[in-house]
Amino acid sequence: MKKLVGFIGWRGMVGSVLLDRLQKKNDFFNFRSVFFTTSQFNGKSPKVLNCVSSNLEDAYNIDYLVTLDIIVSCQGEKYTRYIYSKLKNFGWKGYWIDASSFLRMNKKSIIVLDPVNFSSIQSGINKGIKTFVGGNCTVSLMLMALGGLFSHNLIDWISVATYQSVSGSGSKSMLELLEQIGFVYKNISSYLVSSKKSILEIEKIFTCSLNRINFSEKKIKSPLLGNLIPWIDKLMDNGQTKEEWKGSVEANKILDSKKNIPIDGVCVRVPSLRCHSQAFTIKLNCDISIKEIKSLIISHNKWVKVIKNDFDSTINQLNPLKVSSTLDIPIGRIKKMNIGKKYLSAFSIGDQLLWGAAEPLRRILNILINI
Ligand SMILES: NC(=O)c1ccc[n+]([C@@H]2O[C@H](COP(=O)([O-])OP(=O)(O)OC[C@H]3O[C@@H](n4cnc5c(N)ncnc54)[C@H](OP(=O)(O)O)[C@@H]3O)[C@@H](O)[C@H]2O)c1
To answer: Which CATH superfamily is domain 4-135+357-368 in?
Structure first.
């Protein structure tokens, strides 16, 4: 009999992208599915092949959850924190696949990114590991972009500045940014076509109208339109944000590094809707040519694309709008830095809802249903 897979959090940003990918790739043919909710208890399941119930089930119903072979949760950390230990205490032996960070650094879990760590995934399955977690979005995108350099042990350390889109913070944050756009447009639209106000007066109306909004009740605690927020997640003891901390610990866990590779930087929320971008400063272990670097990068996986370091290629191919909804990982602005011959700069973009979240989950699900 085909395995029974439960989906929790399928309505959110990551969950809906995952659902879309599973449908496009016809994956629902390979297992039976059931959909859960934490809030829409009278709602209907999405219409997919082999779905065993047309109604949404209660995501807190342990008796039902323990009957499943595989649970895929895109619901978030709070839900995993609450339900995972209860399932384990119940003696549930199924596979848990998760988009949230809660279990990533757990010794009994594997962070999945199979183009980078397929052998760790395989040996984990053989050893009886049951918990498979998608990595932090910028970490997965960085490893997809720079995998060719990591796999040849060429990286001494990385300093990274991220430019992370609002959808990385969930559906509510994306809706808030769109509300900000609508609100500001109402205030300035009449002046854009008339010459009643100077450009500086229009800029003032834009800025004042955003600054007048009370953000205390909002998910994004400050205006994001026309703005940026150099802070993502909570403060750690050493002054990093948790997002910055994840950059190093998760990357080293995925790479199964013998020696810790220092990775640090500043993570910044920007008002793009989808895709995370990253500017890297990389200290290499040796002085190798740009030609060799590019060739190692593109030979690592079929999704990474090296973009020519010229203006037209950069503006046309290295921007979030172009990359949104694709599995492409373009990397450009590759150049040696004036600091020294072992210093490299590069800029990469990826859809954080695809390679940064849903796609590694879809791929591990396809591996586990065949066990
Ligand atoms: N967003 C990313 O780029 C990203 C990347 C990597 C990892 N992650 C992690 O993945 C987990 C899920 O993130 P997410 O961004 O998908 O969260 P999300 O969009 O906030 O969705 C989470 C849940 O919120 C509920 N919800 C409430 N209002 C909603 C609305 N208007 N539209 C859709 N859903 C709504 C849904 O649950 P019910 O249907 O049960 O109400 C949904 O499953 C988090 O742990 C996050 O850290 C996210």
So the answer is: NAD(P)-binding Rossmann-like Domain (3.40.50.720)
Residues touching ligand 1 (Cβ under 6 Å) are: 9, 11-15, 37-40, 74-77, 99-101, 137, 167-168, 170-172, 352-353, 356-357
* C-alpha count within 13 angstroms, C-beta hemisphere, residue 244: 21
Q: Whole-angstrom Cα distance, residue 267 to residue 143?
A: 16
CA 304 to chain centre: 16
Confidence band (pLDDT; 50, 70, 90) for 257?
Answer: confident
Q: Which pLDDT value is given to residue 295?
A: 98
The C-alpha angle with vertex 68 and arms to 125 and 80, in degrees rounded to 5, equals 75
Q: Contact at 8 Å (CB) between 52 and 2?
A: no
Which of the 8 DSSP states describes residue 213? S
Please identify which of the residues 74, 137, 267, 275 carries the catalytic annotation. Answer: 137
Sign of CA dihedral 157, 161, 165, 167: positive
What DSSP designation does 331 have? E
Give 6 Cα–ligand 1 centroid separation in angstroms: 16
| Confidence bin at 258 (pLDDT 50/70/90) | confident
CA dihedral angle for residue 65, residue 66, residue 68, residue 73, rounded to 10 degrees = 50
Of 7, 8, 11, the one to substitute when testing ligand 1's pocket (max ligand atoms within 8 A of C-beta) is: 11
Burial class (CB in 10 A: 0-12, 13-18, 19+), 367: middle
Whether 226 shows a pLDDT value over 90: the answer reads yes
On the question of pLDDT at 51 being above 90, the answer is yes
**If you measure from the C-alpha of residue 344 to the centroid of ligand 1, how many angstroms do you get, rounded to a whole number?**
36
Question: Sorting pLDDT into bands at 50, 70 and 90, what band is 188?
Answer: very high
| Three-class secondary structure of residue 355 per DSSP | helix
Nearest-atom number in ligand 1 for the CA of 16 is: 16
pLDDT at residue number 95: 98
Q: Domain 140-165+229-356 in CATH: superfamily?
A: Dihydrodipicolinate Reductase; domain 2 (3.30.360.10)
Distance CA 132, CA 125 (A): 10
Q: Are 18 and 358 in contact (CB under 8 A)?
A: yes
Give me the catalytic one of 74, 267, 276, 300: 276
